[in-house]
Amino acid sequence: MNEKEKRETGWGIDDQLIIALRDVHRTMHSLYEGKSSQRRILMVLSDLGETSQRDLTRRLDVMPGTASETLAKLEAAGLIARTPSEEDRRGMIVRLTEEGALQAAQARAQRQARHREMFACLTEEEKQALLALLGTINGDWAARYPRKGRGK
User: Fold this and answer.
1) What is the pLDDT of residues 72-117, one digit of tens each?
2) pTM score, whole prediction
3) Are the C-beta atoms of residues 85 and 66 closer than 8 Å to each other?
4) Nearest to 46 by CA among 117, 111, 131
5) How far apart are the first and last CA of the chain?
6) Can you list the domains of the chain with their CATH numbers?
């Protein structure tokens, strides 16, 4: 629906904002890997160093089976190493290999380039204004519409 059609059908500004945010969400979703993507896991591990598989699963906000399957693929590709935890005999410690660290750095560089590209249409001042407005909305919505897991 174009802008003229929205006005003619009586769509108010609040409706138009929701549609615009939905469209932004869809575009971002199509550009990004999922919660348990291999690239995301490599970048998270790059930030954390080594961590328990349980903690990594929690941080990714995925089911343990999903994380385990993806980690097995990363391990088979030589990008991560899993070793038994000394503190918890049932747990595993996950860390990047040298190749995994290299691929994590490449993934991060590609993500940063994509972010610059995505906002290239805005000036620095417009970016700051948008960030402030989104901060206001997020703060209000966090208080108004609490949800499980918000703020992870």
Assistant:
1) 999 999 999 999 988 887 889 999 999 999 999 999 999 999 999 9
2) 0.74
3) no
4) 111
5) 35
6) 1-31 (no CATH), 38-103 (1.10.10.10)
